[in-house]
Amino acid sequence: MVSNTDTNGTVFVVDDDPAVRKSLTRLMEQVELPSQDFRNAQEFLQSYTPDTPGCLVLDVRMPGMSGLELHRELLQRGWRIPVLFLTAHGDVPMAVDALKRGAFDFIEKPLRGQLLIDTIRRALVADAEQRAHADRKDSIEGRFNLLTPREMEVVAMVVEGKNNKGIAAELGVSPQAIDARRSRAMAKLQVESIAELVRLVVERGKA
Fold this sequence. Notes:
This protein has helices spanning about 20-30, 40-45, 65-75, 90-100, 115-145, 150-160, 165-170, 175-190, 195-205; strands at about 10-15, 35-40, 55-60, 85, 105-110. It is an alpha/beta fold. It has 9 helices and 5 strands; from the N terminus they run βαβαβαβαβααααα.
């Protein structure tokens, strides 16, 4: 779990209003949060790389590609950066709809500085947790990819609660062969006990 004090990451601001961008970047400077601002969605898409930690502060209504359209584009690309919408009062229904599609939160204008900062910090923590989860998932999947089909077969049967003798009888090989396959599989998966193996398989299934 990522600490609530861990708010590393860049605050990306996309708004067509220069005054809003200037105000938000100054606010980020005051609380020592790095930020980048963009005039429109296209500029952001051309600059942003999805391996960059952070969150996106996004105006709902903009010329060209709107904030809502940008959010949909990010989802289509599989870029899961937390999105915080800035909305006027009449835009709230649209912002709520965006929340249903995975946006992190929205704040109505005129902006209240402390509320915005608090929400951004929560978004940065959520991003860090999401990235840590993704890294863990990739690590686990990478270990399982090292298994041969026979080792994977044995792992599946062990997790079902079968012992070496039962697995050997079912597969028509010696218990010693099964023990060797299980040992190799556990070494590749970096686990030292059957309990750890079971937990890893369960975690993989939930990821």
